[in-house]
Amino acid sequence: MNVTYEYYKDSFGGSLIPENRWISLELKMSARLNQYTFDRMKEDNWPEQAKTALCEMCDCAYKYERRDGKTSENNDGYSVSYDTSKPLNVMLYEIAEVYLINTGLMSLAVDDDVNECNDNCL
User: Fold this and answer.
1) pTM for the full model?
2) Can you tell me the distance from the alpha carbon of 99 to that of 86, in angstroms, rounded to the nearest whole number?
3) Domain count, the chain
4) Residue 30 is assigned to a structural domain of this protein
5) Has residue 64 been placed in a domain?
């Protein structure tokens, strides 16, 4: 676990997600964040920006999951409206970008040592 529920509550100030749902969401969002950063973050040594991004991603996923795509519902005449805006994966990536875009963690660069030659150079 990269971000504890205590961090979510105390440092991030989160209150939306119940503790019994935290572990599952944290694991799923950690996997996504690792995908967005090309596995550059070391286990249990995440920078504060990444922890904050993960907390906000968890909040977003929890809200998205709870509403099941509905924006409104009326039982009297059975009318349901659905959100057709951004898909969850787009919203999550945008959250990660806000916190990590200037850290280099989301950079598409393959190698920081491009000027260094080793035995494999021709």
Assistant:
1) 0.78
2) 19
3) 1
4) yes
5) yes
d(CA 58, CA 4): 12
SS3 state of residue 17: coil
Beta strands of the chain (E only): which ranges? Answer: 70-74, 79-82
User: Residue with structure tokens 């599952």?
Assistant: 24
Question: Is position 78 within any domain?
Answer: no
Query: Is the distance from CB of 105 to CB of 41 less than 8 angstroms?
Result: yes
Instruction: DSSP for 86-108, please give it.
Output: --HHHHHHHHHHHHHTTTTTT--
Asked whether residue 119 is assigned to any structural domain, the reply reads no
Amino acid found at 57: M
Along the 122 residues of the chain, how does pLDDT read in single tens digits?
899 999 999 999 999 999 999 999 999 999 999 999 999 888 878 999 999 999 999 999 998 888 765 566 665 666 656 555 788 899 999 999 999 999 999 998 865 554 555 555 55
Give the structural domain span for 49: 5-11+18-70+84-101
What is the spatial distance between Cα 117 and Cα 87, in angstroms, rounded to a whole number? 43
